[in-house]
Structure formats: structure tokens, C-alpha cells
Amino acid sequence: TKKILGVQPIRNTFNGKMSFFSRTLSVILRCWTRWYDRDDPGGRGDWEDLKNLRMENPGKICLKPSGIDAVTVDGEIPAKETGQYIYATDIGFICRNEDQEFEKCLDYKVRFRCPCIAPPLCWTDWFDRDDPNGQGDYEDLKRLRKEYPGQICPKPFRIQAVTVFGNIPAEDTGHTFQAYNTEVGFICRNEDQQFGRCMDYKVRFRCPCFFPPECNPICQ
């Protein structure tokens, strides 16, 4: 019987709970490490075991990975689909040439699922790029990022909108919003209001306090 144990990727345990205008972390974040390819199938086979990987990459792999993923170096074929006899356990990934029926092991690379540290979060400055004249008040992320490059993280965790005058929370104004979320930003259209037009709003976002401008700030 082929020994193929635990090779399939583990489901992402990042569970974003959406409220009307926020996204919060509800569980511990778990992230994939980078790919490792420390061995090739010459000799006994391909040994991507944790003991040697940790020695060669100190501090890069957690003590108790919750998942392991293995694919071929060429073509990135999942190990479970290669038809080879492989071992994926708590010691890492091993493919032994002596176990194969017709050929030696393919060359594999592996990665591991580990806890990752949730970054400290901070509010951005308030942004007020539009006023309610014309179509309404458009404080959407696409336009905000264009006008304020590098000041808003790629994936905000929360959004907050208040009126420019009086700092009244948007949800207390009675207005109808086309968008009020961390994916689009904030949009109030005059045509959607039952009485009058939109008020003038400003918005801010909850982001990691420090983040690279060109990449997802979490789990890279």
C-alpha cells in the first residue's frame, strides 16, 4: 500500500468575520512558510526532513507545523498526484528511491503551515478627498490610494467613517451607503438618499502599524 500521509494542504485558518463596516481576526493566524528544497533524488532519495531543514534554516520553521505541502520542483505537481511512495509526517517529507517501482524519486520542494504573529494595528490619518456635490461623497479605496500613495495598507482590517462637521458616525446619520466596507471603501450617493443629499464624510482605516507598500502586510 502506498504510504501517502498528510500531504494535502491544510485549510487556511484565517477566518474573517464581516460586520457592516469591519473585519476582525477571530482565530490565530496560520501561514505557509516559503518553499524549501534542500535535497535532490540522487543517492537514497529526496529527504526534506525537518531536522535537516531546521539546521540549514535556523529560526525559519516553527516547532510544531500544523500542515505540510509538497510539490515537484519541476511543474509543481502535488506529491499525492505523482504516484510515488512518499512519507509526509511530523518529521517532514521523505521520498526513498528504494520504495519506487520503476524509477527514482522526483525532486520535491516542501513548505510548512505555522502560526504567524498578528501585527500591531493602528488607525491611518483621516481622509476627505471628496465632498457631496455632484453625485455624492466618494471616499473609495481606489481613488484614495491614487491620491495618497503608500498611506493605506493593501488589506485594511477596519474602516471608520464620520461626518466632517460634528464627527457623527456614518451609521448614525440615517443615510444609505452604496459601500461601507474594507474592500471598496466608503461611497455615499446623493441619488440613494430619501431626503436631501449626502453629508460630507471623512474616513480612516485600521492597518498594520508598519507594512511594505507593495505586498500583503500579513503572512508573507
UniProtKB/TrEMBL annotation:
InterPro entries: CILP1/CILP2, WxxW_domain. It is found in: Secreted. Keywords: Glycoprotein, Secreted, Signal. Its main location: secreted. The keyword Ligase does not apply. Transmembrane segments: none annotated. One of its GO terms (cellular component) is extracellular region. The keyword Glycoprotein applies. Residues 32-114, 123-207 form the WxxW domain. This is WxxW domain-containing protein. The lineage of its organism: Eukaryota, Metazoa, Chordata, Craniata, Vertebrata.
